Automatic annotation (TrEMBL):
InterPro entries: DUF4855 (IPR032329)
Record flagged with keyword Signal: yes
Swiss-Prot/TrEMBL keywords: Signal
Name the UniProt record assigns to this protein: DUF4855 domain-containing protein
Species lineage: Bacteria, Bacillati, Bacillota, Bacilli, Bacillales
A Pfam family of this chain: DUF4855
Length: 539
């Protein structure tokens, strides 16, 4: 699970207020009226201010932000918000008023992981209905390294008549706010809010899990992560290694039923994302008698055992993530490529795109040359577990990768960790499908079942699949594993209810399949879950 080591920084320079977007002006035709004379009143202290989560509440993130409980209406203390979707900050007034301005200040402290919200949306309530005056985007990129503040503001000289106002603030990692302020007139009639855009009563209706039969699942029901390219025998897969992953093998050696229908090949984290490092990874990936070649042979063997001629195992291959700031990649077309940024390419976007294009060409050329008779390439995987909107040029870079995959008629898949930035936006970022990591089992003795519930709710909210995670095969590890599987089934993410990807550390399921007694339970349990057998777990 992503956590933040946080220490508060003292005095912050006050930022300048950015101009409100043109959305309000284009949507609202104010009724002619006399602009009130005199200074507007401070309405904030006259009503009730409340803060709520518009997302999936999480007790760990809630405990983190409880350490920074500053007064949201004061300019002397910051209030911190950690993950969990959006925050809705509402001011309910004792009676209807003419609202002429709303403002809130946000902090950016990049080294501490505190970022400006991407936008602030302003909404007004009248006669029980809410209306939106649009969003003001951050005037500064989230990659800004300076410690600074900016004020998000909506204003109108003649104002709007409302009995409550609220702001919607997305919280991807940490957002710190203060100075929430609403001004207006209690004894002046403002223009009606009905000219604004009505807020949908249920704008975030859950999409439901990513079904295995959904077109964007591309037939993926149970996909195993296969890490190669480093770590000796742990990163080297033989034909014999793949057989018990393709089909269930009894302790007596009998092959009885299909197991994983898709293999996702990705490099170990220690594989350098340089031209030399990736070239070595690809050479290893397509080498004879191991990795992809071994899988191809294993599929042929299992097909004979299961009497399923012509079956092809689905394969997903990885695209590397090239981080902004990496000093040197290599040479493409005689030119040195690095990702540190330059006057002509300040976000290193062109350099990263060139490197990605080079890699995809190398990858697909090797795949086409191999001519695997028992394998089917069904997609590419974005090998970065979060959307780093805080990095320069990130959105354009991810979009380019998506378009690059599409140019080769392949979807781009994503598996973000729990609480990662960008989860709610996976479709707009350009991914064809996404699976969420619950990061439950890896917490060990600190694991709490509510995390599994929250992960399932998040996946259901945004139309995602779920990752099944195994980090050990001891009795204690098995208890957590059983709990996670039981929760998935209980919340509609069992077999045939959702598409799954499986993370098993370094060949843990293979180790379990070749073991007896307690160590074999993880393999048998996984096969049972895939077969649709109910799993009992702790509470």
């Amino acid at each position: 699970m992503f956590t933040l080591a946080f220490s508060f920084r003292g005095a912050i320079a006050r930022g300048a207020s950015a101009a409100i977007t043109a959305v309000f002006a284009s949507q609202v035709q104010l009724h002619a009226q006399t602009v009130p004379s005199g200074a507007p009143q401070d309405l904030t202290g006259m009503g009730q201010v409340s803060v709520s989560v518009d997302g999936v509440p999480d007790p760990v993130f809630a405990a983190e932000e409880a350490r920074y409980p500053g007064d949201i209406t004061s300019l002397s203390t910051w209030r911190g918000f950690s993950h969990q979707g959006k925050r809705v900050i509402t001011l309910t007034l004792p009676k209807s008023a003419d609202i002429v301005s709303i403002s809130v200040r946000a902090l950016q402290d990049f080294p501490l992981g505190i970022y400006f919200p991407r936008y602030v949306e302003f909404q007004f309530e009248s006669n029980g209905k809410w209306y939106s005056a649009g969003r003001e985007a951050s005037a500064y990129p989230l990659s800004t390294r300076n410690v600074m503040a900016q004020t998000f503001t909506w204003s109108s000289p003649s104002g709007l008549e409302a009995s409550a106002v609220r702001i919607i603030v997305p919280v991807d990692v940490w957002v710190f706010l203060d100075g929430f302020d609403v001004k207006g007139f209690l004894n002046v009639k403002g223009a009606p809010v009905s000219a604004l855009t009505p807020v949908a009563t249920n704008p975030d209706k859950p999409l439901g899990p990513l079904l295995p039969t959904a077109p964007n699942a591309y037939g993926i029901r149970n996909m195993l992560l296969v890490e190669t390219g480093a770590n000796g025998s742990l990163g080297t897969w033989s034909e014999q290694d793949f057989v018990p992953m393709l089909a269930y093998v009894t302790e007596s050696g009998q092959i009885t039923a299909p197991l994983f229908d898709t293999m996702l090949f990705l490099p170990y984290g220690s594989v350098p994302t340089t031209q030399a490092g990736l070239s070595a990874y690809l050479q290893d990936l397509f080498a004879p008698d191991k990795q992809l070649s071994a899988l191809n042979e294993a599929v042929g063997y299992v097909n004979q055992a299961l009497h399923r001629p012509g079956y092809k195992e689905r394969v997903v291959l990885s695209l590397p993530y090239f981080a902004y700031g990496q000093a040197s990649f290599g040479t493409i077309g005689g030119s040195t490529v690095n990702f540190g940024g330059s006057p002509g390419d300040p976000d290193a976007l062109s350099s990263r795109e060139s490197a990605e294009t080079w890699y995809v060409q190398q990858l697909l050329d090797a795949w086409n040359r191999a001519g695997f008779s028992n394998l089917q390439l069904v997609g590419l995987y974005w090998n970065e577990e979060q959307f780093r909107d805080t990095m320069p040029g990130e959105a354009a870079y991810v979009q380019f990768a998506s378009q690059l995959a599409a140019a080769h008629h392949l979807p781009l898949f994503w598996i973000p960790f729990y609480g990662a930035a960008g989860i709610a936006d996976w479709k707009s970022l350009g991914f064809s499908a996404a699976w969420i990591q619950p990061n439950f089992v890896e917490q060990g003795s600190q694991a709490y079942l509510e995390r599994m519930v929250n992960a399932a709710q998040t996946a259901s909210q945004y139309g995602m699949g779920v990752e099944v995670e195994l980090t050990g095969i001891s009795q204690q590890d098995q208890a957590l594993y059983d709990s996670s599987l039981a929760q998935l089934s209980a919340y509609g993410f069992g077999t045939n209810q959702a598409s799954h990807v499986y993370y098993d550390g370094s060949k843990l399921l293979l180790t379990s399949a070749r073991s007896t007694g307690q160590a074999r339970v993880a393999y048998d349990t996984t096969a049972s879950f895939i077969a649709g057998v109910g799993i009992r777990g702790g509470s």
